[in-house]
Each structure stands twice: as C-alpha cells, then as structure tokens.
C-alpha cells in the first residue's frame, strides 16, 4: 500500500459541499491499494501510522506518535498515488488495485483503524472529494509497505 501522511493541525473532507469527515490535530492519510496488496499490507501500514513519531515533544523533537498526542486520523482513499508517469505525460494507473479490491481493502483498513484508535474519520471511497488541511510544520511523509 502507498500512502502520503501529513501532520495536520486540522483537516476535513467534503463530498458535494457536505463535510463528511474532520479532525483537529492528527494525521491526514491519503491511501492507495496496489494490485498485490491485501490485509497484511493494510495491517503493516496501520501499525506504522500509529507508531510513527512525527509530533513534537517538550524539546521540539519529533518524538511522539499520533497515539501519544491523542490525535485524530483522517483516512482518504486516493488511487492516483499509484500513478506512473515515466512513459509520457499522461499517468497510467495500472498499478492501482481495481475498484472492488481497493474498496474492500480500504474498508478493511478503516475498520482496523477504528478498532485500534479512538479518533478516526474518513472520506468516501470513489467519490469526488475536496480535502482541506492545515499542514503542521509542514510535515509530509510518503510511506509504502509491501
């Protein structure tokens, strides 16, 4: 699975002008399932996200996780993370999981996150979404688990 993790002071996602998910301090995670991904990769990604030490401690060092700061997770599906533009100017998305597989894995990922963390909000799989965020730092980290 591919993800882009952004440390935020606030983030929200809208569909058709309606806010469907929002968090304060925490992580906005754009996530994409690839062809070979399954529950094992989703579990690995979630474990990494929950322990990733990118929040400041008393000394200002990135030494705390989203769990340590009791922050939120906003999980947004984004198949375009699998884009391959190496062959020209129009990206190919053949590395992304097909929609049915991607939805199953995204739903699994969200359910696992809700079991492991108290504050989880989401976007809507396959919807045209507008994502609003205040990137704190800015801190943006790409993550890929196999």
Q: How would you characterize the overall build of this protein?
A:
- With 146 residues, the chain is of the alpha/beta class.
- It has one domain: D-tyrosyl-trna(Tyr) Deacylase, Chain: A (3-Layer(bba) Sandwich), CATH 3.50.80.10.
- Helix content is 21%, strand content 39%.
- The protein has 2 helices and 8 strands; from the N terminus they run E-E-E-H-E-E-E-H-E-E.
- It has helices at 39-51, 99-116, and strands at 2-15, 18-23, 26-32, 55-56, 62-64, 72-77, 120-122, 129-144.
- The strands form 2 sheets. Strands 1, 2, 3, 6, 7 and 8 form a 6-stranded mixed β-sheet that branches.
- Helix 1 packs across helix 2.
- The chain is globular and about 45 Å long.
- The N and C termini lie close together (7 Å).
**What is the strand tally?**
8
Distance between the termini: 7 Å
Point out poorly predicted stretches. none
Secondary-structure-derived class:
alpha/beta
Strand content of the residues, in percent? 35-45%
The CATH homologous superfamily is called D-tyrosyl-tRNA(Tyr) deacylase
Nearest-integer average pLDDT: 97
Q: Tally the helices.
A: 2
Q: What coarse outline follows from CA principal-axis ratios?
A: globular
Helix content: 10-25%
**What Rg do the Cα atoms give?**
15 Å
The first-level CATH class name: Alpha Beta
Major sheet details:
6 strands, mixed
How many domains is the backbone divided into? 1
The CATH architecture classification is: 3-Layer(bba) Sandwich
H-E order: EEEHEEEHEE
CATH fold type = D-tyrosyl-trna(Tyr) Deacylase, Chain: A
